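Please, is this right?
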Amino acid sequence: MNEAVLPSNSKVIPVILSGGAGSRLWPLSRGSYPKQFWRLLDEHTLLQDTVLRSRNIGLSAPVIVCNAEHRFIIAEQLREIGVTDATIVLEPEGRNSAPAVAAAAFLVAEQDPDTILWVMTADAAIGDVPALSRALDKAVAAAAEGYVVTFGMRPTRAETGYGYIEQGAELPGVPGAWAVSRFVEKPTAEVAEALVADSRYLWNSGMFIARARTFLEETRTHAPQVFDAVQQAVSRRVADLDFERLDPASFCAAPDISVDYAIAERTKLAATVPGDFGWSDIGSWDALWELSSKDVQGNAVYGDVFLDDARNCYVRSEGILTTVCGVKDLVVVSTRDAVMISHRERAQDVKKMVARLIQAGRQEATAHNRIYRPWGFYDGLIQGERFQVKRIVVQPGQKLSLQKHFHRAEHWVVVAGTALVTKGEELVMLRENESIYLPLGVVHRLENPGKIPLTLIEVQSGPYLGDDDIVRIEDVYSRA
């Protein structure tokens, strides 16, 4: 079994969960590229903000648990902010947060089971980091006494999209930390009004702080199937480049259950530290509008947008010119392949629309027009009968798999950079404005040997153009 590289002298290790599709922020956030990878509030993505926040507080290298399909996106975003010491754990399949937390706890416990884990999602916003740091100190003190601690946020409105915590008695010997009397599911609007009026109730932030040992003991007690499956998945893991890949068969045997249901709502050790540090899970477009900078008419605008007589709107364009006129309280989001318009008060219902799109078999529900790959990305430009056109960008030093196709031929035209092309037994160097034709069935590979990104236009032709018409003969990224 391979030992994960984790700091041995760290008191607190951030555990960042980067799963989920964030469908309430569709069409920007989709399964192929969810909201934590987008720059929504500043020059960093939500994932980068989360990592930098824990680093600025003075914590050690994070453990990031993520979907295996997102591993190279995460590695690249960490590289952009100079983080090279994170442990990235790959889930073969999403099984909710309890198995993910258990995997991180098992890994950390291999070196020191008394290390305290601060578990958080990769896609939340924090407005007041010094206040967060003070609250974390209290939570760590309670965790060191054996409690499973969550941050409870002081409610600012009757929110139906959050769960609630009933605050009990203050913990003896741990100032600022309180027992949890009970957890309350996401309430109706009427119930939410009553909860906000009662000072005992807090929003459940979904962040948890406890020793690795405590997480594991409580998982074994209250979710033994999760414990057994994940213990085996971790013990059978393999190193894959810079990642820790959990054993697929073992991990997929774990129940699909959240850490809230599996542990927090069942344990007798639940505690909370009340906080007021500007937390938001950015769970809707309306929430993002509240957090964003606005013009004098209350509009938050991003991208190529023109407004006329619009008030209190959130308008975002990811490419095409978007104009809004004579409206108020709307969310308008345009991407390369979809446009979403909603009243801000109905922003939570976007998730229902995504469900309808999935039921209708629309790929736009889960996949973007831009598809990210370990070597770079490609954009779908045009698709017609028996042909399609893509823009392919390959990062310096990267290469696609050695492959062939049974149903399509390809024509590549280099528009920027330099390409090294394997065509059967030939090696061909292409520069800007040069092209090559790859007949159906020929073994081929594309590489970027240069120092700048390689951009080319690919024209595919044939009776079937699906991405599954790829026979990989050799691949440096360990894809099937």
